[in-house]
Design goal:
The structure is a homodimer. Chain A is of the alpha/beta class and about 350 residues long. Chain A contains 13 helices and 13 strands. In chain A, strands 7-6-8-9-10-12-13 form a 7-stranded mixed beta sheet, sandwiched between helices. In chain A, strand 8, helix 11 and strand 9 form a beta-alpha-beta unit. In chain A, helix 1 crosses helix 2, helix 2 packs across helix 3 and helix 5 crosses helix 13. Strand 2 of chain A pairs antiparallel with strand 2 of chain B. Chain A binds a DNA duplex (16 and 16 nucleotides) through helix 2 and helix 4.
DNA sequence: GTGAAAGCGCTAACAA
DNA sequence: TTGTTAGCGCTTTCAC
């Protein structure tokens, strides 16, 4: 059943039926009732392809994931996208997913701009001096960046975790608990987020006039074995740490193994805080009460970023919009259930 | 630049230009050359919204992920979808992603069928007696199931890992190495894939006339702590295992911890095989040479399932199509680099 | 081998 | 408040 057939059945013009269904104010309320009832009864659904052509809007947001074919899918993307999809479906939008390596990236964006398959895009995993930002500005496609390019000083919309503050708070908490020697086990610091995390760690040490010690700062891929070797090295050091601040749950498993190996006991001899984007994925079963765990809610970020983008599309004058997400703290202890609080 | 403008510029009709660009045979080769050159020069891109309306095809495949809003995003979905997207973009299709809980599911599918936003769908995570299969059959939407509903005897298209065979092979390998007491640490066996894995394990034991021992079969959520407790329990048993067959890398980390705790050494006193859909995610850095690891390539599955679906859409008479993916074996040892082989 | 013209199913300016 | 009419930008018959 299409609009024409429905209007014929009702003895009204397509226009009136369309207006009634789309809640245009000028329609007689009685007519509107009648139309909506008939639409329901005949299970009428507007053809989205036609609507899109007629309105000139794709009602679709593009997510282009930077990824070469050998790389694995980062669950962070999944969480973020899950949040975004929720926002889209609430407003009648769809999400279109594309993969792009650095070579194909530019042509993909140009293609999107030219053929109008999307009304806007989310930029994932910004790099340093990311060319996508000026490109999208040039193409005049509405966009929101998930993360930031700190080298780009132009006005653009972004949403980011406050990684610096999160690690500042976590470090501060450990210092307040009496720790003076805190080992940071961080991700690759060539990536923006990891670098910001180290800054937060250093900020807190600086505030408390605690000298930083390069032997207590480790950086590397987020794997269990890296956690193990970093913690082993740190514990063998002349100035062994009394606490660890770890950037990922998987890494923390390695840290835990090293602590074990050294004959120490977590929670008694040594404190560990994990600060992890991905924590939610592993946290299902109260698996980590022995750790003090902090979770950066990526899904909420995705939902917010999507909402920002739709707002920009509806009201371009609103741009640029920015959002800095604070990390909620979830405190756990080895003796009891996980409790909630704020540092 | 649209078709009309381009054709005007060329002094040809829209029809001819369209035909030239779409490789219709009746066009003069010289004309075609001229048209294609001009299209390139003026950066002409057909408006997808218009093409879709005119052809009646959405050029889009829907992936509807069953997920309530509290659940976390399963990285398996990510890998699978990454593979699917590659297949789609090769054939000019897009992927549209939706989340659905069990309540909203039916209406979402009915909506898709009625408004024509997708040409087909992939069904993820089939449940026992999954209503989506008969529903899609009724709605006449082309679809491929990722997994199987063993309770549904109708003809439908699916792609699945051969979980039974994979675990059969892995168990067989351990038996060939001389193990007689093999502990299975499995996922929740109410899920189809885990249940099939146990069957494979039991098949192999049966083939070799080894009695199964319920004390050596553990089932539960795929977490580190479950791995730890399962392995601890197994090792404390009267008939302790000499080998573990573990259904996930994260679980295996817990198993490793338990082995350590028991004063044993992996690779010397005890063997461990991991059989994991998600292994690729953790495997980046050769993290697991001490394990013998097997990887089920989910991404390849996604690509194949997508290709199957597009083939069905192009040639409906081909359906139903089915594919059983075999798990390639990747063998590692504690002393050397990871090697490839087949059991 | 090329073109004219009629759609695809909707929205939106303009009239009434 | 409702209807008439003209698109949106493409594909596809049908005629030449």
């Amino acid at each position: 059943m299409n609009l024409k057939q429905l209007s014929l059945k009702l003895g009204l013009s397509q226009t009136t039926v369309s207006r009634a269904l789309n809640n245009y104010p000028e329609v007689n309320e009685h007519t509107r009732e009648r139309v909506k009832l008939a639409a329901l009864k005949h299970n009428y659904r507007p053809n989205t392809r036609a609507t899109r052509l007629a309105t000139g809007r794709a009602m679709t947001i593009g997510h282009i994931l930077p990824m070469n074919s050998t790389e694995t899918f980062n669950p962070i993307f999944g969480e973020f996208i899950a949040g975004a999809v929720q926002a889209y479906s609430k407003r009648g939008y769809e999400l279109s997913l594309t993969l792009a390596n650095e070579d194909s990236e530019e042509s993909i964006y140009r293609e999107l701009a030219a053929n109008g398959t999307v009304d806007g895009v989310i930029v994932h995993s910004p790099r340093v001096n990311d060319m996508r930002i000026p490109l999208l500005q040039e193409l005049n496609i509405p966009f929101v960046v998930h993360g930031r390019d700190f080298n780009n000083l132009s006005d653009y919309s972004w949403l980011d975790m406050n990684n610096r503050r999160a690690f500042y708070q976590a470090t501060k908490l450990l210092i307040d608990l009496g720790h003076q020697s805190i080992c940071l086990v961080n991700g690759r610091e060539t990536l923006n987020f990891a670098w910001r995390r180290r800054l937060g760690y250093l900020d807190a040490l600086g505030d408390e006039k605690i000298a930083s010690d390069t032997a207590l700062m480790h950086t590397g891929d987020l794997t269990e074995s890296n956690g193990y070797s970093a913690a082993t090295k740190a514990l063998a050091n002349g100035n062994p740490p009394t606490a660890f601040l770890v950037a990922s749950y998987v890494v923390a498993l390695g840290v835990r193994r090293a602590i074990h190996h050294a004959g120490l006991e977590m929670g008694r001899d040594i404190s560990v805080i994990i600060h992890d984007d991905e924590l939610s994925y592993f946290q299902n079963d109260g698996d980590i009460p022995q750790f003090t765990a902090t979770r950066l809610s990526v899904r909420d970020g995705g939902e917010l970023a999507a909402t920002m983008l739709l707002d920009i599309i509806d009201e371009p004058s609103n741009a640029p919009l920015t959002a800095l997400m604070e990390a909620p703290l979830v405190i756990g202890a080895s003796t009891g259930p996980v409790k909630s609080g704020t540092a």
